[in-house]
Design brief:
Layout: H1 2-30, E1 36-40, H2 81-89, E2 110-112, H3 134-149, H4 154-163, E3 165-169, H5 172-179, H6 187-190, H7 193-213, E4 218-222, H8 231-234, H9 246-269, E5 274-278, H10 280-289, E6 298-302, E7 328-330, H11 338-350, E8 356-357, H12 361-366
Parallel strand pairs: 1-2, 1-3, 3-4, 4-5, 6-7
Antiparallel strand pairs: 5-8
GO cellular component, one term: extracellular region
Protein name: GDSL esterase/lipase
Family: Belongs to the 'GDSL' lipolytic enzyme family.
Length: about 375
């Protein structure tokens, strides 16, 4: 008799758990933006590289010095771009794909696949070791879809994906950790800057279409910022004192122009979807040209790092960073500070067409 009683209790508990899960799925599906799916590099990462064999890690102090979770793997002193965007859209920042606990109800608000040192091209960033390349991140998304299929019926899943937003932040390492290191990569010998920009755009276009074909209808794709102004590039010392390296900024210009054209073409070809080009170069350029407008007073060196402009070597473990982090545009050799990231996130969500074309994230959420 006791065995039957125990079995009935177990079945009731399982049924209750199932109902709770179904309720959660129903609630998520009723949200305007039920989930965020995040692809790209360290500008969007929240800890995938903690689980990979790579030198590109940020899970040690002083990273996270201003984040309530400490050093989580975010390449920032505080919150990441996606943390801020999630807050502004009312969607929890999704967990890293590689974390073994990223299953079940934890994936109902999306998943973050971004990986430091990764690029559009598979070889970009190999000098750091393992990473989830963009192609690998798309494969990882497919495995998440298999989980969703076990949790939702096809109609509910289709609606869930159509209302969700994919954020794609990539291309930086195809320059920093590929084209701009001729000693390790052949790309600068094989392509001039314009050809290389086109190669990247064409490859990214195929990756965007792969995500679209899997059910993602809203894609927010960021351009590349003025890489010639980051502390690491300034530290090379090839530009005049106090100046950005214009030749590098011109290189990424070819990519950005091509990316915006690609977004226009995708919107013409896929009327059931919306693709957005985020003008990272314009926003970060505005911050660098008008720092006082945003309460910044340090634009040319990192808060944390070693060497010229604190940009020759990025943050070392247990290094004491600068105290004026809120007034400093760059956190380390490659990444903006939390304060600069906030400006970009706010303009991504609320900005005019000069910042986000053809719509911003808030408008995208309403479509």
């Amino acid at each position: 008799m006791g065995v039957w009683k125990h079995a009935r209790a177990s079945a009731a508990a399982a049924m209750l758990l199932l109902l709770l899960c179904l309720n959660e799925i129903a609630h998520v599906n009723s949200q305007r933006v039920p989930a965020l799916f995040v692809f790209g590099d360290s500008l969007a990462e929240v800890g995938n590289n903690n689980f990979l064999n790579t030198f590109a890690k940020a899970n040690f102090f002083p990273y996270g010095i201003d984040f309530n979770g400490g050093a989580t793997g975010r390449f920032s002193n505080g919150r990441s771009l996606v943390d801020f965007i999630g807050e502004m859209l009312g969607v929890p920042s999704p967990p890293p794909f590689a974390d073994p606990s990223t299953t079940g109800s934890r994936i109902l608000n999306g998943v973050n696949y971004a990986s430091g040192a990764s690029g559009i091209l598979d070889e970009s960033g190999r000098n750091y070791g393992d990473r989830f390349t963009m192609n690998r991140q798309i494969q990882n998304f497919e495995s998440t879809l298999n989980q969703y299929r076990s949790m939702m019926n096809p109609a509910a899943l289709s609606q869930f994906l159509a209302k969700s937003i994919a954020i794609v932040v990539t291309g930086n390492n195809d320059y920093i950790n590929n084209y701009l290191i001729p000693g390790l990569y052949n790309s600068s010998y094989n392509y001039n800057a314009q050809q290389y920009g086109s190669l990247l755009v064409n490859n990214l276009g195929r990756q965007i279409l792969a995500l679209n074909s899997m059910g993602i209808k809203k894609l927010f794709i960021t351009g590349i910022g003025p890489l010639g102004c980051i502390p690491n590039i300034r530290a090379i010392g090839l530009a005049p004192a106090g100046r950005c390296m214009d030749s590098v900024n011109q290189m990424v210009g070819f990519f950005n122009v091509g990316l915006r054209s690609m977004v226009e073409q995708l919107n013409r070809d896929h009327p059931d979807s919306i693709f957005v080009y985020a003008n990272t170069y314009h926003v970060l350029g505005d911050i660098l040209n008008n720092p006082a407008r945003y309460q910044f007073n340090v634009v040319d060196r990192a808060c944390c790092g070693v060497g010229r402009n604190r940009g020759q070597i990025s943050c070392l473990p247990l290094e004491i960073p600068c105290l004026n982090r809120k007034q400093t545009v760059f956190w380390d050799a490659f990444h903006p500070s939390e304060s600069a990231i906030y400006v970009f996130a706010w303009r991504a969500v609320n900005g005019p067409q000069d910042d986000c074309y053809p719509v911003n994230l808030k408008q995208m959420a309403l479509i």
